[in-house]
Write a structure and sequence with these properties.
Number of strands: 9
Helix content: under 10%
Largest sheet: 6 strands, mixed
Radius of gyration: 15 Å
Distance between the termini: 41 Å
Shape: globular
Strand content: 25-35%
Strand order of the largest sheet: 2-9-8-4-5-7
């Protein structure tokens, strides 16, 4: 399938599509991951992964990657369709904070509103990968197995 939106639907009771992410889920608050649930996973799904990426962040790496990665979370079994707030049951990858844990939105002061893309990926193979992968390393490993994906976009702004 490659990277194209599908009928997979991602939602959270913490915030709605294109709405503000509550301070609780940011670096200015408790910095705890929001809860999520998803539906309409493809029939042959064997595992899921979740990523949070801020494409508005003024960061371009030497490899040409852009934005800031706030969460890389994977090895989620196909039998799961919800993540509770602050979940830690599955595998954390490396964020651009240099940590293997959720790091909430916290754009630079006065930088304006940033958009945070929470991606859900459905995989047709239980691709068990080691902890600590960056978003780009994870995507390189799972891309051939992505059979569905979608996103929930929230925004946050510091004054």
């Amino acid at each position: 399938m490659g990277f194209a939106l599908s009928d997979l639907h991602l939602s959270s009771t913490a915030f709605n599509q294109s709405c503000s992410i509550p301070t609780k889920h940011t670096g200015e608050g408790e910095d705890v991951s929001p809860n999520f649930s998803w539906s309409n996973g493809p029939e042959n799904t064997q595992a899921y992964a979740v990523i949070c990426h801020d494409p508005d962040a003024p960061l371009i790496t030497t490899k040409g990657n852009y934005g800031f990665v706030h969460w890389v979370y994977y090895n989620i079994p196909a039998t799961i369709n919800t993540l509770k707030e602050g979940c830690t049951e599955y595998t954390n990858g490396m964020t651009d904070f240099g940590k293997q844990i959720y790091g909430g939105p916290m754009p630079p002061n006065g930088h304006g509103q940033h958009h945070y893309y929470f991606w859900i990926l459905a995989l047709d193979k239980n691709v068990v990968v080691e902890p600590g992968l960056t978003m780009y390393e994870l995507l390189a490993q799972v891309e051939p197995n992505v059979i569905g994906m979608n996103r929930l976009i929230g925004h946050y702004q510091r004054d």
